[in-house]
Design the sequence.
């Protein structure tokens, strides 16, 4: 997409005036003296989410155990209720989505379901830039099968420590590979992988493939009806603003519904026989059959509210504004900050860039701490990355401009020298 940006605060305000989504900013809790640019780590609380959570608390106080039967059993099958709202965000059928567990526990669930190593085909293919927890889960599953990690985990290494070469991934899809787990968007560099291409290549070789959508869900458009991966996992506390540690999502392609989950639990049992409590698992043959234990209603409730916003707007419009915000930030960095040692280390192309900016500097950690003291909330990733995530639902172009001004001030006045290089805080 072509953008015709100009420098100056007045131009930023002009962009905000023309913003079709500007009214949604009022749906979130923002601080007057703070510019929040960390929605890629933890999204801001929404008023809809708050209302839904407080309603759940009131229902518990009023109904106690009867909560499971009111509203036609809505809260007993709350995952299905929320899955119906979540499915459009990944372009899936609602019965292919389940709201359950955490990202890592869902990786364990998916791998334990689909990973069936044989003497000839026993390797799990991963990359070396994915979030570490994904690798921990993969290695753990390898050990459970009595295999050695160094033998059974096949790692496609990045050439530059920033991006993943998709050709190298495809080249690594050899006959000994049983399963592939990859990120959709790299959490450091914001690179988007071509899920459709990788899925097609994996399936040509009869390899199971799944994706971690943690930095993609709610940030980019996803269409699993077209991509058709075998599984996917995601968290809901980043772009989706589900709340700290909110419950995660799991996608199971409907072609696999007849498979038994690797980790069965009573909430994956068919509804009709669930309370018969038989000693033999009666699998519900849709994604909800991959649930394990009783759902955490308080963890799910904020999602119930905030997903209404996403579905009211639609991911197409959200993605369009997100791209424009990040493109504007890059324009300002190029024109105002590059002389101070700041660099853009994420893809420039819209189709390859996720929802956050990867801004690098050799004093990145100190600058990140200085930003917080000056009213800007970013986050830092080793070794030299300041992640800036202007969120389409609640950040403005004026805020982007002001953040760049503050970054310039920190560098020009060498304010970062006032801060230690030793990392002490979670940012």
Sequence:
């Amino acid at each position: 997409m072509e953008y015709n940006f100009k420098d100056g605060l007045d131009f930023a305000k002009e962009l905000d005036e023309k913003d079709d989504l500007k009214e949604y900013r009022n749906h979130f809790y923002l601080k007057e003296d703070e510019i929040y640019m960390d929605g890629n780590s933890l999204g801001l609380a929404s008023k809809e989410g708050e209302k839904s959570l407080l309603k759940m608390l009131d229902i518990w106080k009023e109904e106690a155990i009867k909560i499971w039967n009111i509203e036609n059993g809505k809260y007993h099958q709350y995952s299905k209720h929320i899955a119906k709202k979540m499915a459009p965000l990944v372009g899936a059928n609602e019965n292919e989505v389940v709201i359950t567990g955490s990202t890592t526990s869902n990786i364990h669930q998916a791998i334990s379901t689909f990973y069936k190593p044989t003497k000839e085909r026993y390797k799990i293919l991963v990359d070396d830039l994915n979030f570490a927890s994904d690798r921990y889960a993969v290695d753990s599953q390898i050990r459970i099968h009595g295999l050695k990690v160094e033998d059974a985990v096949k790692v496609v290494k990045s050439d530059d420590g920033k991006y993943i070469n998709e050709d190298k991934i495809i080249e690594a899809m050899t006959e000994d590979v049983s399963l592939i787990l990859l990120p959709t968007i790299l959490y450091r560099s914001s690179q988007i992988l071509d899920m459709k291409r990788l899925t097609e290549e994996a399936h040509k070789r009869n390899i199971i493939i799944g994706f971690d959508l943690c930095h993609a869900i709610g940030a980019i458009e996803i269409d699993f009806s077209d991509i058709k991966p075998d599984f996917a996992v995601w968290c809901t506390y980043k772009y989706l603003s589900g709340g700290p540690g909110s419950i995660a999502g799991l996608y199971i392609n409907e072609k696999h519904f007849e498979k038994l989950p690797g980790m069965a639990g009573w909430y994956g049992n068919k509804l009709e026989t669930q309370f018969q409590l038989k000693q033999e698992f009666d699998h519900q043959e849709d994604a909800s059959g991959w649930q394990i234990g009783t759902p955490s209603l308080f963890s799910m409730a904020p999602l119930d509210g905030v997903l209404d916003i996403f579905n009211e707007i639609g991911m197409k419009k959200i993605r369009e504004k997100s791209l424009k915000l990040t493109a504007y930030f890059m324009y300002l960095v190029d024109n105002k900050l590059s002389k101070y040692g700041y660099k853009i280390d994420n893809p420039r192309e819209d189709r390859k860039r996720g929802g956050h900016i990867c801004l690098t500097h050799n004093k990145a950690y100190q600058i990140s701490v200085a930003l917080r003291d000056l009213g800007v909330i970013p986050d830092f990733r080793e070794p030299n990355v300041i992640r800036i995530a202007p969120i389409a639902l609640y950040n403005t172009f004026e805020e982007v401009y002001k953040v760049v001004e503050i970054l310039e001030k920190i560098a020009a006045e060498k304010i970062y020298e006032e801060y230690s290089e030793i990392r002490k805080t979670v940012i």
